[in-house]
Amino acid sequence: MKKKVIMSNDHAGVQLAQRLIEFLNKEGYEVDWLGTKTEESVDYPDMARKACEKYINTGGYEFGVLICGTGIGISISANKIKGIFCALPQNCFAAQMAKEHNNANFIAFGARIDYPQSPEEMLKSFINAEVSQSERHIIRRNKMFELEK
Ligand code: RB5
Asked: Mind listing the pLDDT tens digit for each residue in 82-128?
């Protein structure tokens, strides 16, 4: 069975979403794309909610990808939903750490941001990273879960 990723975006993120779907397909992922497909204005909290609620309620996804103009609004919105840990990395190193240290289950990008490395490279760093099982990281991740209560 193919590995599945869930994705959503607002109007600012349509083109980057299409690029990342192509990349993820090449990497062997099936992408459930819930984002808007036109440049007609939509609200990023609605687009975050769609993907995050389906991720939580349906399950079966390896991780989620969210895109808006800066990545800020859509990641803040996602992090309001219980069970979502959405990272907004600045570069490949941060994308790797988002999985390794924080075990983020969503990764967000800003379609209007000039990243030092491409979003595809950042996504690859996230995918290839392994969640650290060292005690200090487990303790910190458990404390993040506590904050949700
Ligand atoms: C939409 O114009 C823009 O505000 C949105 O894509 C995002 O950047 C918000 O954080």
From this structure: 999 999 999 999 999 999 999 999 999 999 999 999 999 999 999 99
- Considering only CA atoms, which residue is closest to atom 1 of ligand 1? 69
CA of 130 to the centre of ligand 1 (A): 31
């990008």: which residue's tokens? 109
Q: ∠ at Cα 67 (65, 72), nearest 5°?
A: 110
Ligand 1 pocket test, candidate residues 46, 70, 72, most atoms within 8 A of CB? 70
120 token code pair: 């595809």
Six-digit token string for 35:
């984002």
Query: What b/e sequence results for 14-44 when a residue is b if at least 16 CB atoms lie within 10 Å of its CB, and e otherwise?
Result: bebbeebbebbeeeebebbbbbbeeeeebeb
Structural domains of the chain, with CATH: 3-147 (3.40.1400.10)
Cα end-to-end distance, the chain, whole Å: 35
Instruction: Tell how far the Cα of 14 is from the centroid of ligand 1, in angstroms.
Output: 12
14's tokens:
């349509």
pTM over 0.85: yes
- Compute the residue count for the chain: 149
